[in-house]
Structures are given as structure tokens and as C-alpha cells.
Sequence to fold (149 residues):
Amino acid sequence: MGKITRVAFMAVLACILCCGCDWKDPIDEDIEGRWRLERFETTADGQMHECERIYYSITRMVVEVAEKQGPNGYGSFIGRFEYKDGRKKVVMREFKQRANTSDNGVDATVEDLLPFGMNANGTTFEVVVADGDNLVLRSDYATLQLTRF
Fold:
């Protein structure tokens, strides 16, 4: 009888522990993830900007943009991410310089964000394509073409 009681207690304990967990699944797996910025086209002049080693990491509330081991030294920035209009639009805002595990409290400047296809510290993008392998985002400044890696 003691063995059955112990097994029942363990099962109840496992259920309680699992129910206490808050699973943070992506809101949209076709948008959230790790992306490489291949190129972006600026709207004003139609100029295509090819990108080298520039990456976006998007989660349900945080976005990081960074040049990883690239030749230009653009740095790394972390900001807020949110969906608008039922996932038809996304907003990236309040970028700050990246520190070891968070930000260092220093706001990113417009000049800091230009190599990442943004001309403001708060940008709203229309989601043009989001198929899991490709992500195309359009703002009033530029159209970004990203591929999943």
C-alpha cells in the first residue's frame, strides 16, 4: 500500500509542477525566430542595400538586431517587439545598446539603426511575407528581406 501511495503522491506533485509552468510558445512561428537580413531597399530612392552578417532575433516581446563578427562594427541593439492589427504589422521600438545579458541603458541613435533598415528608434512594419523561411517587412523607410537561419 505504501508504494501505491508514494506513486500517487509523485503523480500529483508532477501535475502541480507542470500546471505551474507558463509555456511561452511563439505567437507566430513564421515571424519569431532568428533571421539574417539579406538586403533592404530604401523607399525614398529605391536603392538596394546588400547586408553582410546582420541578424535579427525576434521573440514575442524582445527583438535584437546585431552585426555578428562583421567587418563594419555596427554593434548590437536590443528593443521591444509587439504585434499590431492581428499580426499584419509588427512594431520594433525603444532600442538600446546591448550589454552582456541585457541592455546598458544607452538609447540607440538613428545612425546606429540605419544599417539595420530602420530610420527611427520606433518603427512599424507591415508584414508582406512570412512563410517560415522568408520574412519581408515594409516600413515607410525601407523594405527588409530576411531569411531564416
User: Anything to note?
Assistant: The first strand starts at residue 33 and ends at 42. The chain has one domain: 25-148. The chain has a mean pLDDT of 89. The two ends are 54 Å apart (CA to CA).
